[in-house]
Amino acid sequence: MDWARDMPTWPHGDWSRQILSRPHRWHVQEAGKGPTLLFLHGAGGATQSFRDLLPLFTDAYHVVAPDLPGQGFTKLGTRQRCGIDRMAEDIKTLCHSQHWAPQAIIGHSAGGALALRLSQMMEVPRIVGINPALSHFDGVAGWLFPMLAKLLALNPFVPDLLTLGAGRATRAESLTRGTGSTIPEEGYRLYSRLIRDRQHVEGTLQMMAQWALDGLLADLPNITAKVLLITGDRDRAVPPDTSVKAAAQIPDAQVIDLPGLGHLAHEEDPERVAQHIRAFLTA
Q: What angle do helix axes 185-195 and 198-210 make, rounded to 10 degrees?
């Protein structure tokens, strides 16, 4: 993604700035005053995923949303730090460099797993996971998908191949509908912009190739934060039962299921998701 070219038409571009916090040059959106809420998007997304959710909190909170390394407008400083633990360490370093002390982290999908890992590194008191990706792939996919991601990430031509071809808007719509969600047309256009960017595709592949949840899953009983897991009952990417099983292992966790919503629940019905998050934060 090109900052000068794309930022003027990016959602909440006036909230955006670049921060050099080694090893990456981060793109961060920041607005509002009050207790800090840190928002973390899922693999393959960017800050645009929270375009309608963030404004619902700026009246009472200081909201911060970075693009993950190599995705969106964040420039990847090294290809070796895209796994969950190292990525969490780099986000912690970013927060410390900016004197952010999040009172809660709200993470979507893989961002939900990152939020839980960060809660241990930074002693964040409250965590919200929106359809959090907290399980391994089942069966053959458990070894096949990570292996394919590693092979794709190691081939320098693959990101170019994945961004070529016509009908990208249709491809973006097909990908998002495949998660069980139907989002506004603007959402499809924004995802289309992301998947035709080589850097973004490469960053997403690196994240997939290095992603391993064994350590986090083993640590679930040791999480001290209060945790809310929000699921959409139409989620085809992460089955809602994943959150139920994870919550059973976390000492202080609850699950809320939202009927009629899929994996991108916060893009489908941001007001309903925000209502549950606000109630959890003020309980």
A: 80
